[in-house]
UniProtKB/TrEMBL annotation, chain A:
Keyword Transport part of the UniProt annotation: yes
Keyword Protein biosynthesis: no
Provenance organism: Solemya velum gill symbiont
Keyword vocabulary terms for this entry: Cell inner membrane, Cell membrane, Membrane, Transmembrane, Transmembrane helix, Transport
One of the record's GO molecular function terms: phospholipid transporter activity
Protein name as annotated: Intermembrane phospholipid transport system permease protein MlaE
Database matches in NCBIfam families: MlaE family lipid ABC transporter permease subunit, perm_MlaE_1
Transmembrane segments: 44-68, 141-160, 197-217, 237-256
Family: Belongs to the MlaE permease family.
Localization (cell): Cell inner membrane
Subunit structure: The complex is composed of two ATP-binding proteins (MlaF), two transmembrane proteins (MlaE), two cytoplasmic solute-binding proteins (MlaB) and six periplasmic solute-binding proteins (MlaD).
Topology of this chain in the membrane: Multi-pass membrane protein
């Protein structure tokens, strides 16, 4: 009886949290005027969430592309198919690795920071102070952050992809002597703009929403103690990563299924 | 004052990020995908009929002497003759392809992608918009070749040849 109740208790908790997260998202989407009234804040958030993530995204992009170049070359050269190295690198980056790795890095680099910031505001009762002054903390604080994340992730993913392709080009053409002409020509003939690149951008927008949403929700609902904030930060990274990977499967099945 | 200076720097950095993101997207569109490069200088369309096109696809290359001179723009099926109707989109600068050109479906490597290879004939007249290439050779289908080989082997040993 007891264990049954404990299962039920957990289930109800999960559902309640999901519902609260959904309500928070609705509240954010219902107050987009916060974007206009707090445009400066939006820019500042774009800076701290997007610009400051540029370094880690660029470096990872280049290295992921270089590793793809090496591994792809070793495997493809066994089948005398080095000419398709460009396709291999570009397709895997644009379709999967770009959006997913960018989102994972973003969750670790920016999502955790967002959670800690909002959580600390809650712990120091700044959120309550805003409410006391009849300022809606959702539109004042969460809306600019949410849209900053939404805008940043696709931009970062595009840079990740571009730098990854260049990294792969460096290894494939520079080190492994694949012909530069075939590298680009094969890539251009096999990678489709609508099917591959646009779908990749859609993916990264979805991941941007997921990561920022989870980060803001965890911060907003954090237990206002130092321990609570640390747990919320951890949960942000874990939940974002799992959600991104799970959602990636669903999106891939929908986009490239047929 | 210090505040507005910080905000200017922030704005510049955000602007730089957006610009870089835009450049990256542009690079992906033009250099990585099929949007740039070999594209849409629409030439003239020529039709060719094949008994079997194998793995030929729309956008497969059309080559002559190994040089890419166009691509497959559509693949249809003629329900009365049971033939595949392939429309080739040839680039306008290659406008001196003889009318008795021979079109073959070839394979890059042993298991690679299939493409159409054109062997020029000797005619003085050239293919134009909506001309038809009459001499064609179907795709090489591995199973059929293997089947024929096995069949002829079996026949050989049945008639006392072979080993």
């Amino acid at each position: 009886m007891n264990w049954l109740a404990s299962i039920g208790h957990r289930g109800i908790n999960v559902l309640r949290n999901l519902a609260r997260a959904l309500l928070l998202l609705l509240a954010i989407l219902r107050a987009p005027q916060g974007l206009v009234t707090r445009f400066r804040e939006f820019l500042a958030q774009l800076y701290s969430v997007g610009v400051l993530s540029l370094l880690i995204i660029s470096v990872s992009g280049v290295f992921v592309g270089m590793v793809l170049g090496l591994q792809g070359y070793y495997i493809l050269s066994r089948f005398a198919a080095e000419s398709t190295l460009g396709v291999f690198i570009a397709a895997s980056l644009v379709r999967e690795l770009g959006p997913v790795v960018t989102a994972l890095l973003f969750a670790g680099r920016a999502g955790s920071a967002l959670t800690a910031e909002i959580g600390l505001m809650k712990a120091t009762e700044q959120l309550s102070a805003l409410e006391m002054m009849a300022v809606n903390p959702v539109s004042r604080l969460l809306v600019p952050r949410f849209f900053a994340g939404l805008v940043s992730v696709p931009l970062l993913a595009a840079m990740f992809n571009a730098l990854g392709v260049l990294g792969g080009y460096f290894v494939g053409v520079g080190l492994m002597d694949v012909d530069a002409g075939t590298f680009w020509a094969q890539m251009q003939s096999q990678v489709d703009f609508n099917k591959d690149i646009i779908n990749g951008v859609i993916k990264s927008v979805v991941f941007g929403v997921i990561c920022t949403w989870i980060a803001l929700f965890q911060g907003y609902e954090a237990v206002p103690t130092s321990e609570g904030i640390s747990r919320a930060t951890t949960r942000t990274v874990v939940h974002s990563s799992l959600a991104v990977l799970g959602m990636d499967f669903v999106l891939t099945a929908l986009m490239f299924g047929d | 004052m210090a505040n507005s200076r910080f905000s200017l720097l922030t704005e510049a950095a955000v602007g730089a990020m957006m610009l870089l993101g835009g450049i990256a997207l542009f690079f992906l569109a033009m250099q990585v995908s099929n949007l740039g490069g070999f594209k849409r200088v629409s030439g003239y369309q020529v039709e060719a009929r094949f008994d079997n096109i194998g793995g030929l696809k729309v956008r497969s290359p059309v080559t002559m002497a190994g040089v890419r001179i166009g691509e497959v723009s559509s693949i249809g099926f003629d329900a009365t003759t049971y033939e595949a109707v392939v429309t080739l989109d040839l680039l306008p600068e290659f406008n001196q392809v003889p009318t008795d050109t021979f079109a073959k479906i070839l394979t890059q490597g042993i298991l690679g992608e299939q493409y159409i290879g054109l062997d020029p004939g000797g005619s003085e007249q050239y293919l134009q918009q909506d001309s038809e290439i009459t001499m064609t050779q179907s795709a090489f289908v591995l199973e059929e070749i293997v089947g024929q080989f096995l069949f002829s082997k079996a026949e050989e040993s049945a008639t006392g040849g072979g080993f």
